[in-house]
Structures are given as C-alpha cells and as structure tokens.
Amino acid sequence: MSAVKVGILALQGDVREHRQVLESLGVEVRQVRLAAELEGLAGLVVPGGESTTMSRLIQRFDLLGPLQEAFAGGLAALTTCAGTILAAREIRDGLPDQVRLELLDIVVRRNAFGRQRESAEVLLEIPAVGPEPVPVAFIRAPAIEEVGPGVEILASYRDEPAAVRQGHHLALTFHPEITGDPRLHRLFLSGL
Amino acid sequence: MSQNGHVETGTARVKRGLAEMLKGGVIMDVVTPDQAEIAQEAGAVAVMALERVPADIRAQGGVARMSDPSLIKAIMGAVSIPVMAKCRIGHFVEAQVLEALGIDYIDESEVLTPADEENHVDKWQFKIPFVCGARNLGEALRRISEGAAMIRTKGEAGTGDVVEAVRHMRSVSQGIRRLQGLRGDELASAAKELGASLELVREVATTGKLPVVNFSAGGIATPADAALMMQLGCDGNFVGSGIFKSGNPLLRAKAIVQATTYFDKPEILAEVSEGLGEPMVGISSSSLRPEELLAGRGI
Question: How far apart are CA A98 and CA A90, in angstroms?
Fold first, then answer.
C-alpha cells in the first residue's frame, strides 16, 4: 500500500484542528503555503478561516494557477466552511474579485445564517458516514444555495445542503474538525 | 429541523471555535467604515471597531469608554469579516450593549479606562465570545476561568514598541513549560502561586498549551514584528495603531497579513517589508511613567 499524502492549505485558519484529526487517522500531513508543496499530494484540505484573507494570499503569491493545475491533475479536495466558499463555482456576498477554485458546481452564500450569535453546535445526520449523527460546529457558516446536476447532497441544515460531494471532492459548510469526529475525514480519505 | 438533531448556540466550543478560525490572521483596529474596508481589502481576518486607536487615547487622555453604537453599526455594515469591539474591564453593561448590537467578539480591554478594579465581566453569562489581555500565565488562566474564549498579550498598546508584547508572550510560554516539568503532586501549589484553578493548571500541564487561542497584541508595527510574535508561538496578531498611524496603511496592512502567514520565510519577509513608507512614530515603552502603562490594569 502506498503512503497517501494529504496536504492542508495553511495560509490561514484552523489548520491545526484538521492536522489533529488526520494524524489521529494515521495520515501523513503536509502544510501547503507554496506551490512546490503541492507536489505529490493525493488530497488537499482547504480549512476553515476567512475566505477573503485566503483569497488575497492566493492572489498575492500566485497560487491560483498551481492549485487549479493540481486539481486538474487529480488532486482531491476536502473543504470546510471558508474552504467551501473558495471551492464554489459562484460566491454570493463575497468580495467582487474573490478567488474561486470552481471545484464543485455549487453556489455558496457567505455568512448565510448571520453573525457569531447564530453560530451553533449541531448533531447532523449524515447517512453516508453511518447511522449515528455527527457532532459538528457551524461558525458564521455559509450556505450552499444551489447545486448542479452532478452534485450529491450528503446532509442538510436549515433546509439547505450542508455537505455535498462531486467526484472525489467533499465540501462542508460546517466544521467536523472542531468537534473532532473523524468520520468525514475518513470518508474523504477512502476516496483517494 | 426534522432532519437534524440538537442545535445549541453560544457554547464554549463555538465561542472558542471562531477564534480558531482567526488563527494565522491579523485583526486590525479601525475607527471608520472606510478604514474597515481597507483592512478587509488587505486581508484582515477581523476588525476591531473603535472611536480612537490606542495611540490617540494615550495622547488625548481622559476616560476611554465603549464606542458609540452608531459607529460600530456603520463598521459592521461596511465589511463582511467579523467585527469586534471593546468594553471597559468589568463593565458588564457595555458588554450587554455590544452583545445586543450583534458584535462577533468583545474585547474586555485594558486600553479603555477600567470600570471595576476588582472584578472582570462574568463572561460565561454571554452568548458572544470574549477576548482578554494577559501579561503572564496566571492572568491568562484567570481570564479563561471567567469565560474568555481567546487570549491576547497585553503588550503596551499605542506605543508601536513590541518589547512588552514579546515579554508577555515569552512569559506565558515559560509558564506553560514550567508546568509541564512539574510532578502531579506539585501542581496544586503551582495553581495557588498562579492564582488559577487547579483544573486549568492540570489541563495546561498535560496539553502544553492554553485551552484557547493566544494572539499577540500591543505594539506590533511592522511585518517583522508580526513574524517575530508568530515565531515566538502566538496564533495570530492584533495590530492597533500600527497600521492607520503609518504613512501607507493599505500597503502596510497587506504586508503584515503576508508576514503573519509566511512568518518563518525570511526571503518572503524581506520582500514584503520593502518600501512600506513611514511606520508609526511610536513611543519607547521604557520612557513611559508607571501610571502611563496600560498593561497593569485588570490583572
């Protein structure tokens, strides 16, 4: 069995929490801040954080081209919250020139549920990872308002898709890494 | 919500969780909606809405209070990143007002004139998370016991002199390393010495870190300052007067954001530090009289 190599885009955000979950599953993890660090990866986690901040850093350090090239070459993405905003085909309530990776055919609205006082811990039913609901956190969360025909909805929250899959990309509007439940990371790794 | 189980807002996990999302980022003091937009454009992860930056509070003197809600609302309306605001130490009604405004984080701050010299706000009573300043491990753990969901160094705000932030960050780290070296039966005495709960002291001794995110603040004025604090182990940076008291705020704000991400890459730090114009003039914190130091408030 070849060692699966997974990276975490480490420009800003909750990199440490993703690293802890992945390492608890015995996965070798590499932090990615430079294009050269994408080399040889099978999967890339795009973490939670501020999507506008990550966007500005991707622009300033010319990472958009190398990222798109890596994804076109078969790199799979697990995106949470801000990461899912970056992965969308269209962003609502973003900055006019915000970076889009266009990994999934989804339309995402930033801060769709309001401000921090609406942030919540939720027990979410996600049948794809088992019958027991998954404890997750929605933090100033976005919502997936539209999905294209190739997108599979794995879970919903407040009547909007919250976990979706297209090909080997898995996009979540919430944070399983904050509560530490490893099942969604395991699902992602099983597709690599 | 038939497809979902339990939903709970305002938990310790979502309060601390928002701070986790700010890690590796820069939170900038702003006094107008225009400045907030510049900060967002530069890549700030959040802004602190204020009427006066600490350098002006220092220069003008008088009682420094919570900002006018109309200013805070205008800044909240101008940007889509999180907005924080300050209340006076112990002024739980200012905190209630900020919560009612729907602010994302409250900074119970020594930069404002303390309202209570004995007690801090009981932060567990709020659904909105709090960040508090600390000079050492004991202060940090006392604030966490009171419900703070994020800690920052106090530094010496409004000086542009990083020396106090360095002192405070090193002091917290040294305090943690010391606990890690103690035997289990020595922790109760250490807790007493620190003025902190034994439960928290045990947790820190085991994990080797604070249970909440720890930013630096107070005197950060250059990209190299920001990277210095990151290399000393902080999770991100607050920059107060350092940006909008400088010659070219947008350029400097961007450079500090970039330096916070690439804090351990000297070639990138050299590149982003070039041609930023005048930094804030600043005041050496060793030239301040004891009564002019803000960090001694609210210990």
Answer: 10
* Two structure tokens written together for B284: 């050496």
Give the pLDDT of residue B177: 98
Report d(CA A186, CA A188) in Å as an integer: 5
**Amino acid (one-letter) located at A120:** A
Q: Give the separation between CA A135 and CA B273, rounded to whole angstroms.
A: 43
A15 to chain B: closest CA residue: B23
Q: Does B25 contact A33 at a Cβ distance shorter than 8 Å?
A: no
> What is the distance between the alpha carbons of residues B2 and A172, in angstroms, rounded to a whole number?
20
Q: How many CA atoms lie within 13 A of A84 on its CB side?
A: 28
The answer for residues whose C-beta is within 8 angstroms of residue B78's C-beta and 6 or more apart is: B33, B34, B36, B37
Chain A residues touching B81 at Cβ < 8 A: 50, 52-53
- The backbone region for B197, taken as left when phi is positive above 0, alpha when psi lies in -120 to 50, beta otherwise, is beta
Q: How far is B129 from chain A (nearest CA, A)?
A: 8
pTM comes to 0.96
Does B223 touch chain A if contact means CB atoms closer than 8 Å? no
Would you state the pLDDT for residue A3?
62
Residues of B with Cβ-Cβ distance to A82 under 8 angstroms: 21
Q: What is the ipTM of this complex?
A: 0.96
